[in-house]
């Protein structure tokens, strides 16, 4: 997968918006290491997220 394709697929795990080109957090799931992306709004509001691979939940 090319870097431009990966960039297009980045979506906030909480609200689902496309975050390419936005100020967003990128981190690995604490349990399984799956890459998680969150938009600034969901981070600020502490919206919950769930890892699609292992089901880990966090704020």
**Shape estimate:** globular
Measured by DSSP, the beta-strand proportion falls in 15-25%
* Helix-strand sequence: HEEHEE
How many helices?
2
Rg value? 11 Å
Helix-residue proportion: 10-25%
Would you tell me the structural class of the helices and strands?
alpha+beta
pLDDT average, as an integer?
Answer: 86
Count every beta strand, where a strand is a DSSP E run of 2 or more residues: 4
Largest sheet: 2 strands, antiparallel
**Are there runs of 5+ residues with pLDDT below 50, and where?**
1-7
Query: How many individual domains?
Result: 1
What is the spatial order of strands in the main beta sheet? 1-2
| Terminal residue distance | 30 Å
InterPro entries: HVO_2753-like, HVO_2753-like_euryarch, HVO_2753-like_ZBP
Protein name: HVO_2753 family zinc finger protein
Domain Small zinc finger protein HVO-2753-like zinc-binding pocket: 12-55
Pfam families: HVO_2753_ZBP
Written description of the protein model:
- The N and C termini lie far apart (30 Å).
- The chain has helices at 3-8, 40-44, and strands at residues 24-28, 35-39, 49-50, 57-58.
- It is α+β, with helices and mostly antiparallel strands.
- The strands form two sheets. It has a two-stranded antiparallel sheet with strand order 1-2. A two-stranded antiparallel ribbon has the order 3-4.
- The protein is built from two helices and four strands; from the N terminus they run αββαββ.
- The relative contact order is 0.23.
- The chain has one domain.
């Amino acid at each position: 997968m090319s870097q431009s394709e990966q960039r297009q697929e980045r979506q906030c795990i909480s609200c689902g918006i496309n975050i390419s080109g936005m100020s967003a957090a990128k981190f690995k799931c604490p349990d399984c290491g799956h890459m998680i992306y969150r938009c600034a709004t969901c981070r600020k509001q502490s919206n919950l997220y769930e890892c699609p691979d292992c089901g880990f939940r966090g704020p």
